[in-house]
UniProtKB/TrEMBL annotation:
This is Histone acetyltransferase. It comes from Dibothriocephalus latus (Fish tapeworm). One of its GO terms (biological process) is regulation of transcription by RNA polymerase II. One of its GO terms (molecular function) is zinc ion binding. Keywords: Acetylation, Chromatin regulator, Metal-binding, Nucleus, Transferase, Zinc, Zinc-finger. Residues 92-198 form the MYST-type HAT domain. It is an enzyme of class 2 (transferase). Transmembrane segments: none annotated. It is found in: Nucleus. It catalyses: L-lysyl-[protein] + acetyl-CoA = N(6)-acetyl-L-lysyl-[protein] + CoA + H(+). Belongs to the MYST (SAS/MOZ) family. The lineage of its organism: Eukaryota, Metazoa, Spiralia, Lophotrochozoa, Platyhelminthes. The keyword Zinc-finger applies. Its EC number is 2.3.1.48.
Length: 198
């Protein structure tokens, strides 16, 4: 059993530890000139709920297709019409993304791109301008920008005018970067072809 004096001593030592930790954190922040950052616009519950509903809908529709195809693979009219719709959609993909945030700029998209369905159902996605990683939420995008090791695109700068620069990227040297090269670019140009050779 702990006595009153020992309880007071423990409380004082805990309070002293907390003060020391706080002082160290403040000293560290002053030395590194860090300011506490509050990330605005956290993902709202409605967006998260909407995304879950869309994912559930996609999963259920694919399961329904699989069950129907197993039941009647040759005479199933629904699977035949879905197959013809899939062929038609390969020719003319539908653009579901309304806009992207690329770096500090928000741009409206003109054409469809090859993002996965759980991303294309969202009205807005965030893309890192240096590593081309896409994120669903603003808060994830801001965290990524703080931690992203790339501070400029790889390759040779081939054009600069004011604050605008174009970089030439060698596909043999930057294979990891070019696994998904035309994702954000294809949203703007309809006749873009991927030049990757496997």
């Amino acid at each position: 059993m702990v006595g009153r004096k020992e309880k007071k001593r423990l409380l004082r030592s805990n309070a002293q530890r907390e003060r020391k930790i706080l002082q160290r954190a403040q000293l560290f922040a002053r030395r590194n000139s860090l300011k506490p950052t509050i990330l605005p616009n956290p993902p709202q519950e409605t967006h998260i709920q909407l995304e879950r509903e869309v994912q559930e809908h996609l999963i259920l529709s694919t399961r329904l297709q699989q069950v129907e195809q197993k039941a009647n693979p040759s005479t199933n009219l629904i699977s035949d019409t879905l197959a013809t719709q899939a062929d038609a959609s390969k020719e003319a993909p539908v653009n579901n993304l309304r806009a992207i945030v690329f770096g500090e700029w928000e741009m409206q998209t003109w054409y469809a791109s090859m993002y996965p369905p759980e991303v294309t159902c969202l009205p807005l996605i965030y893309i890192c301008e240096f590593c081309l990683t896409y994120m669903r939420y603003n808060i994830a995008y801001r965290r990524h920008r703080l931690r992203c090791k790339r501070k400029f695109p790889p390759g040779n700068e081939i054009y600069r005018r004011g604050t605008l620069s174009f970089f030439e990227v060698d596909g043999e040297k930057q294979k990891v970067r070019l696994l998904f090269p035309s994702g954000p670019i294809k949203l703007m140009f309809s006749s873009m072809k991927s030049s990757l050779s496997s």
